[in-house]
Specification:
mainly beta, nine-stranded antiparallel beta sheet
Length: 174
């Protein structure tokens, strides 16, 4: 499948095989670019539910992902494969991020011009680096960024080890 619009350009291949239960899915390929502020439109609800989708909609306010590799393989019954004993089963999406604005605790409210109102945490803007979604967690390796108050950030690592952990901990170092 090759598809593109103003939000994204992708080239993926794969399929679904009837292996009883929900079947087995294989998707491999590339996302050449994806608008961060529209990423929520392209994340399947099965990957995190409405809560994750709504968070992505409010939290990722600008920027772009490029050179993203998609690698998904395994029985859908075991998705996202973090508990699987089969090392061939994988859910991994990884790529570069440029100019991303992240509001970790978004207000989910916009002003009269449609611009997001700041949440309860200071947002981070101009994030450059890499992002990895794997299994039930995610990692961001930011080579640079800037906080709402102007503090320059360099070589920061942010990790959510598991979306299913109560309170969804965010571990930050750097």
């Amino acid at each position: 499948l090759i598809a593109s619009n103003s939000d994204a350009a992708i080239q993926v291949h794969g399929g679904w095989k009837d292996t009883q239960d929900w079947g087995t899915l294989e998707i491999r390929g590339d996302i050449h670019y994806l608008s961060a502020s529209h990423a929520y439109r392209y994340i399947p609800l099965v990957a995190g539910g409405w809560g994750t989708n709504n968070w992505l909609r409010g939290a990722l306010q600008k920027g772009i992902a490029r050179n993203v590799k998609v690698d998904v393989y395994g029985p859908l019954k075991e998705f996202p494969y973090h508990k699987s004993t089969n090392p061939d089963y994988i859910f991994r999406i990884a790529g570069d991020i440029e100019g991303v604005k992240l509001d970790f605790l978004p207000s989910m409210k916009t002003d009269q011009d449609g611009q997001w109102l700041a949440g309860t945490w200071p947002w981070i803007d101009q994030i450059q680096g890499k992002v990895i979604f794997e299994g039930m967690g995610m990692q961001v390796f930011a080579t640079s960024g800037r906080t709402q108050t102007g503090t320059v950030l360099q070589n920061v690592k942010a990790v959510i080890p598991s979306y299913s952990t109560p309170g969804v901990p965010l571990l930050i170092s750097g």
